[in-house]
Description:
By secondary structure, this protein is of the alpha+beta class. It is built from 3 helices and 4 strands; from the N terminus they run βαββαβα. The protein has helices at 20-30, 62-76, 85-91; strands spanning 7-15, 34-43, 46-54, 78-84. The chain is globular.
Amino acid sequence: MEKEMDKAIITVVGKDTVGIIAKVCTYLADSKVNVLDISQTIVSGYFNMMMIVDLAGAEKHFADLTGELNDLGEQIGVSIKIQREEIFEKMHRI
């Protein structure tokens, strides 16, 4: 029986530098978090990325992922936020 998806939204914002996508995706892969969709853009030297991920296979608790992504963001000079999909949708309803 397949596991049901447990989706989350990850946003990454900051000054553009080499390797942001690689570092974030490497962390997610090492944590068994599957990237379902990714969109990124650079405007006037500022990097902005949004990812939809599946946490069903994650080997870490959501709180641990949140803290570690925050730490990774500090290391590479960007802000990384993760929200569960249902919270994200409720916050962005009109």
